[in-house]
Amino acid sequence: MGALVKKEAQPERNEGQDQQQYLTFMLGGEIFAIGILAIKEIIEYGNLTEVPMMPDYIRGVINLRGSVVPVVDLSARFGRPGTELTRRTCIVIIEVATEEEKQVVGVVVDAVNEVLEIPAEQIEPPPSFGARIRTDFICGMGKVGGRFVILLNVSRVLSVDELAMLDQVAGVQDTPRLVDQAAA
Q1: What global pTM score does this model have?
Q2: What is the DSSP string of 94-107?
Q3: Please, what's the b/e burial string for 9-48 (b: 16 or more CB within 10 A of its CB; e: otherwise)?
């Protein structure tokens, strides 16, 4: 019972840091992480339907248990070359909260590593320069085993403007069927 009390007391001690567990993954040889509370699931890469006239970083949509879920290539979103597909490439399904609702989005990553618990005292603020991605995409730099893990701010990486575009992608549910029928 003492352990239960300690775990409940932890969030109060770390005000402003509502997450301590992060899913770590590889992207272009670097380690990134997203707060575990935003993660819904991890699925194998595949069965993507490309949607015409979308930005390069939107790979397409997938059918996830009857729902159309847009898939974003994080590497391309960061202005890098698109993710090269390997047997370890996967899609991390995340839930992004907006003011009105929650949007489910898939993000393509090179490989998923592990879930890490990073104490608040081991998280540094984002760098003001020198990062290879926009600093507003970073919510902190976690120190783990002598290395830095880039902690992503999911609501910035998939900003409200992008979410509006993703809603339009999800609204074209019939288009992939028409494209598939035309190819048949």
Answers
A1: 0.73
A2: EEEE-SS-EEEEEE
A3: eeeeeeeebebbebbbbebbebbbbbbeebbeeeeebeeb
May I ask the CATH architecture of the domain 20-177?
A: Beta Barrel (2.40)
* Domain ranges (residues) in the chain: 20-177
The per-residue pLDDT for 158 is: 73
Q: Which two tokens stand for residue 103?
A: 């949007």
Q: Within 10 Å of residue 52's Cβ, how many Cβ atoms?
A: 8
- Taking the chain (184 residues) in runs of 10, the rounded mean pLDDT of each run is 33 45 92 92 92 87 92 88 91 85 90 92 79 72 88 78 58 43 36
With tokens 């992503």, the residue in question is 152
Q: Which helix (H) or strand (E) holds 42?
A: strand 39-44
CB 67 within 8 A of CB 167: no
